[in-house]
Design brief:
alpha+beta; Alpha-D-Glucose-1,6-Bisphosphate, Chain A, domain 4; seven-stranded antiparallel β-sheet; 7 strands; globular
């Protein structure tokens, strides 16, 4: 008998003081402005973090030495409503094309100058029970998606 592992997705939401189009632009084109430089996986110190604005585009970092380190791909690109990224980082936060979870970010207007941003990080069970639960704890912590969304909200409101 095969046992199916199920790990709940991580859900985070924040309301930012920016219209929908601006919130989407700051999250994506402005990704490098708010993503913390210490949140990198490359060997070299990170110079910039980038999301290429198209399905099949890369989500990656560039190091100060010119190196590049992939994080995943853009699966869905629907500005200014939502986008979905594949996450190819293993339990040690190293790039591994053999593993894939998904991060969906949706932008819902809440008035002229406010947008609710909903993030879901799903398919963590693809790592197996122990590794998937460890990854969930990491991305669900204050140093994970919650803290990152707070940095994004600050930049979006600027």
């Amino acid at each position: 008998m095969t046992r199916t592992v199920t790990i709940a997705p991580v859900h985070k939401s924040i309301v930012v003081k920016a219209g929908q189009a601006r919130a989407f632009e700051v999250f994506t084109a402005g990704f490098n402005r708010w993503w913390p430089k210490e949140h990198h996986i490359g060997v070299a110190e990170m110079r910039e973090a980038l999301i290429e604005p198209k399905p099949g585009g890369r989500w990656y970092e560039k190091g100060v030495d010119g190196s590049e380190c992939d994080w995943g791909k853009v699966l869905v690109w629907e500005p200014p409503h939502r986008f979905v990224l594949s996450w190819h980082l293993n339990g040690e936060f190293k790039f591994d094309p053999a593993v894939e979870t998904e991060v969906e970010i949706a932008f819902t207007p809440e008035g002229a100058n406010a947008t609710r941003v909903d993030l879901e990080h799903r398919h963590l069970e693809r790592f197996g029970q122990e590794s998937g639960e460890a990854l969930r704890r990491g991305v669900d912590s204050e140093g994970g998606w919650g803290g990152l969304l707070a940095l994004f909200a600050k930049e979006a409101a600027a």
